[in-house]
Amino acid sequence: MSHNSSPQTVTTTKSEALKGSIRVPGDKSISHRSLMFGALAVGQTKIEGLLESEDILGTAGAMNAVGAVCKKHDDGTWTVDGVGLGSLMEPEAPIDFGNAGTGVRLCMGIFASHPIAVTMVGDASLSRRPMGRVLDPLREMGTEVIARRGDRLPATIRGAQTPLPTTYRVPMASAQVKSAVLLAGLNTPGTTTVIEPVATRDHTEKMLVGFGADLKVEINDAGERVITLQGQPELKPQNITVPGDPSSAAFPIVAALITPGSDVLVEGVLLNEQRIGLITTLLEMGADITVENERESGGEKIGDIRAKHSALKGVTVPAERAPSMIDEYPILSIAAAFAEGETHMLGLEELRVKESDRLAAVARGLEANNIPCVEGEDTLTVTGGATGIGGGTVETHLDHRIAMSFLVLGLAADKSVTVDDAAPIATSFPTFLPLLKELGGKLSVQGENA
Ligand code: S3P
User: Which terminus of the chain has a lower count of CB atoms within 10 Å, N or C?
Assistant: First the structure.
């Protein structure tokens, strides 16, 4: 996995117009869940378009370690032979989740209501991230936890023999926390209720219903989402086609917007409402973005997104929009560097606990490239239109999205931009560098010919 391999220094330089039609890999959130829910179903789930990145291969390994069989076939599709809810086996060795917050947190939920002991480890980035947000509600459901480093990895959990259903109000905007509690609720007798004051991505809810769970979502008088799940359903295997990841599509889209003359089409992208806050923001900034060929696939809206070079202007991005674009602030800050005026991003507290402290990592990266910005506790303001930008080396802190964002910057900046380690890109978007080249991006990998 990249976190153990040697750093890969990559530099991008001012490029001609980016042109072409591309597909980005499958959605990371849906890929994780396809393997996990397939493992909990009885029978064989078939998956087309699975994201084959380190994070997802880690989840496949985790599901295999508890008795499922996740397998890739010659035609590129994957199958998961599920063991069935309640029948997970105790793994023989610690499970390494690498860099994957979603992988480990959702699996904690699954393991929590099975009477097995599981030790989970991760890379340096994942070992710094808070796990208490997931472990606390799981403890309430009867799970035993041994995590000596203040609820950080490595951690061992011993799932409850007789788990207790809970009603849990998620204290932060986190789909991972919501999902962990719901997944623990799957093998728990009775009704598990999760109250979500701020709506976050709803893949767990939608996909569990698809797999046959009895799950309902209602909006209460306070406007909160109330999700109720009846425990111990028999989950039925599914045929899943994973749509393109909007969080990966964000990089070529912004690259096209900031590189003069560009016209790029990204085909087959997931357009779930909880995932397209960046597109809303870019349109407000004046981006020439159109969605073509809108269609439905597996209960989700998908479409082809065309982005052309645009004159952007700064905007204020409201805090309420953060959950629908939580992974997109690093690349938005690059678009903001090319916009006229200031872009204010509000409500960014969750960025502090991503693969890196993304707020700080973005601010330091912008500063290293002479782009004026002000980092607040949970805000970022970027002033666009500065001249002489670029020329810096960016520390990526094992964060794939920091690496990709600053490589996009280098395509349109006055001077080249270097990232100290692009290896973590393999956690979510292994084809990023070849796709960038295919579109006409100029990049060089240290030790390789450009
Ligand atoms: C994810 C939820 C988000 C997001 C992550 C994927 C998911 O994390 O940042 O990349 O698949 O549930 P939080 O729920 O912690 O915000």
Answer: C
Domain boundary among 180, 199, 230: 230
Task: Tell me the pLDDT tens digit for each residue of 121-131.
Answer: 999 999 999 99
| Each residue's pLDDT tens digit, 274-286 | 999 999 999 999 9
3-state secondary structure 188-229: CCCEEEEEECCCCCCHHHHHHHHCCCCEEEEECCCCCEEEEE
96 CB near ligand 1 (under 6 Å): no
Is residue 136 domain-shared with residue 57, that is, in the same domain?
Answer: yes
248 CB near ligand 1 (under 6 Å): no
Q: 185 and 226, same structural domain?
A: yes
pLDDT digit string, tens, across residues 5-55? 689 999 999 999 999 999 999 999 999 999 999 999 999 999 999 999 999
Nearest CA residue ID for atom 15, ligand 1: 174
The H or E element spanning position 79 is strand 78-83
pTM of this structure: 0.98
The residue segments making up the domain with residue 359 are 2-26+243-449
- Is residue 263 annotated as part of the catalytic site, yes or no? no
